Amino acid sequence: MNNWQKVYTTPNGHQAEIVKAVLETHELPAVVMNRKDSSYLFGYFEVFVNTEDATTALKVIADEINFE
């Protein structure tokens, strides 16, 4: 994953998938890494994009996504 940069972290898998979907609508390929332990309820999900798309992805996330 040398060409990938983390742009979002959350404990909720559905939020990570929403972020991925929004990024993909802007033609920014994204992947979700599940870092949640399967035996215990701790861990998190991370959304990664290509390094060259990271600045644009962070702007899209800031401008278009609000989970509050």
Automatic annotation (TrEMBL):
SUPFAM superfamilies: GlnB-like (SSF54913). It comes from the Bacteria. Residues 4-63 form the DUF2007 domain. Pfam families: DUF2007. This is DUF2007 domain-containing protein. The lineage of its organism: Bacteria, Pseudomonadati, Bacteroidota, Cytophagia, Cytophagales.
